[in-house]
Write a structure and sequence with these properties.
It is a single chain. The chain is built from 16 helices and no strands. The chain has 485 residues and is an all-alpha fold. The protein has 2 domains: 385 residues, MFS general substrate transporter like domains (Growth Hormone, Chain: A); 59 residues. Helix 8 packs antiparallel against helix 9, helix 10 runs parallel beside helix 15 and helix 11 crosses helix 14. The longest helix is centred in the C-terminal third of the chain and has 56 residues.
């Protein structure tokens, strides 16, 4: 008698959502934790002004360079495998940061943290899609994952400021190392492996050109904050753009590309990647720098600034969890447009901040932007999965998150440049605060305008979807006649 076939591993939808959502929240906590205590962390790690910039930028480099690669590898070689390796690398990076003897090792740990984060974020939506069947249950699950993004942003600055104040910057990283190590063990035990039926060949030239291009581009944006005309900045930006163009050429020529460029003919995929890009550019980039602006203009402590930001990010959690109620009435593309419009209106409500203001002045705008962010995060998670073939779900997640983090890097650079564009009219702290307030007003208007541009892109994609649907309905009778004849 032949041996009985092995029983397939059980799929645990609830456990899968819980593990992927918690780990995603941990990624955003780790990224945003230094924002409210950036100066104190940089000083303690013996980092100068440029090093302070690279505390956040180093993680962005690791994430953006490897997200799409990690998503493609997860689809082809196992989503659980890539995810659990990512959590392990994440834990090792946080431990290295906690034990770093100096600033150089600490910054290297932040880049490694980005690499681990990429291997977590890219397979997450693919794992959820495999565990939860299409329909209302999957919409709820993807909304929960979107809420986890907002939860991490809400917790990160407050956690970072509190722990840094009480126990020092090493304890911030040490605590995250312990939690992520525990999550790695849980993920290994409860997740079920899934992959595409036919793995594709490795795309080494695509991997290299994308990683090098995104790294150069983000490095150039980071260095540009100290002056955009410097040769090193111009060379990095030009090299980044050139390598990304080369990546597109490679993907158009290779037999099995990491990113199928034909997907950009799909209005849904354009809405997913374009919406994610504008989310990073107009919303995440501005909000990432808002705690620093609040400290400079209002004189708030890092902890207080993180608490004000939590109004926005906390409400995004609630709105993402409730966004499933819109799914029966509105398409995901329409939700992206409405979410970006609400975010733009909320950011516009932040206009007029001055040294004599209080944080209460910001509350209405942060509330509106928070609700819009929750709707947006839930809709983008739906589109990231639905706009690509089912066997390429992790690649879709990787493309979506790559667009978001590239947009975030550009958004932070734009916010810093615009906010610093006003010069003090006299000596002293008050003159500097008023100049920063004037620059912040300009940055608010730029961010709101970018939200509007992203919403218009989503509206155009929705119109294209409607036209494609109408054409398909019109062609259906002809196809039926051909089949019958």
């Amino acid at each position: 008698m032949s041996p009985a076939p092995p029983h397939p591993a059980p799929v645990r939808p609830g456990a899968t959502l819980l593990v992927t959502a918690l780990t995603t929240a941990l990624v955003t906590v780790a990224y945003t934790a230094p924002t409210a205590s950036l100066a104190a962390t940089a000083e303690a790690a013996h980092l100068g002004a440029s090093g302070r910039t690279w505390i956040l930028t180093g993680t962005l480099v690791g994430i953006s360079a490897l997200l799409l690669t990690a998503g493609s590898a997860a689809d082809d070689h196992g989503r659980k495998r890539v995810f659990t390796v990512g959590v392990a690398v994440f834990a090792a990076a946080e431990a290295l940061a906690a034990l770093a003897p100096g600033g150089t090792v600490y910054l290297a740990a932040r880049v490694l943290l980005g690499a681990g984060s990429a291997a977590i974020l890219a397979p997450a939506l693919g794992l959820i899609s495999h565990a939860v069947p299409p329909g209302p249950a999957r919409i709820r699950a993807l909304g929960g994952w979107g809420a986890a993004v907002g939860l991490g942003i809400a917790v990160g600055p407050v956690y970072g400021a509190l722990v840094e104040q009480w126990a020092g910057w090493r304890a911030v990283n040490g605590g995250l190392a312990v939690v992520s190590a525990a999550l790695a063990a849980v993920a290994s035990a409860v997740l079920t492996e899934s992959r595409a039926d036919r793995p594709r060949a490795l795309d080494p030239y695509g991997v290299l050109t994308l990683a090098a291009g995104t790294s150069c581009l983000i490095a150039g944006l980071a260095q540009g904050r100290s002056g955009w005309g410097r040769p090193v900045v111009l060379v990095l930006l030009a090299l980044g753009v050139l390598l990304l163009v080369l990546f597109a050429v490679v993907e158009a020529r290779v037999r099995e590309p990491m990113l199928d460029l034909a997907l950009f003919r799909s209005p849904g995929f354009i809405a997913a990647t374009g919406g994610a890009m504008f989310t990073g550019l107009s919303l995440v980039g501005f909000m990432s720098y808002l705690p620093a602006l609040l400290q400079g203009v209002l004189g708030l402590s890092g902890l207080a600034a993180g608490g004000v930001l939590a109004i926005w990010s906390g409400l995004s959690v609630v709105a993402a969890l409730q966004a499933r109620r819109l799914a029966a009435r509105l398409s995901a593309t329409t939700q992206v447009a409405l979410g970006l419009l609400a975010c733009g209106a909320g950011e516009a409500g932040l206009y007029g901040l001055g040294p004599d203001s209080t944080w209460v002045r910001l509350a209405p705008g942060l509330v509106v932007a928070g609700i819009g962010s929750g709707v947006l995060n839930a809709a983008l998670a739906r589109l990231a999965v639905s706009s690509v073939p089912p066997h390429r779900a992790a690649m879709g997640s990787g493309a979506n998150n790559t667009s978001r983090y590239l947009g975030s890097a550009l958004g932070v650079a734009v916010t810093v440049a615009v906010a610093a564009s006003s010069r003090p009219t006299g000596p002293g702290h008050e003159a500097a605060a008023r100049a920063l307030a004037a620059g912040t007003d300009r940055a608010v208007l730029v961010a709101a305008g970018l939200c509007l541009a992203g919403a218009l892109l989503a509206v155009a994609a929705r119109a294209a979807e409607a036209r494609a649907g109408a054409e398909a309905e019109a062609e259906a009778p002809a196809r039926e006649r051909v089949a019958a004849g």
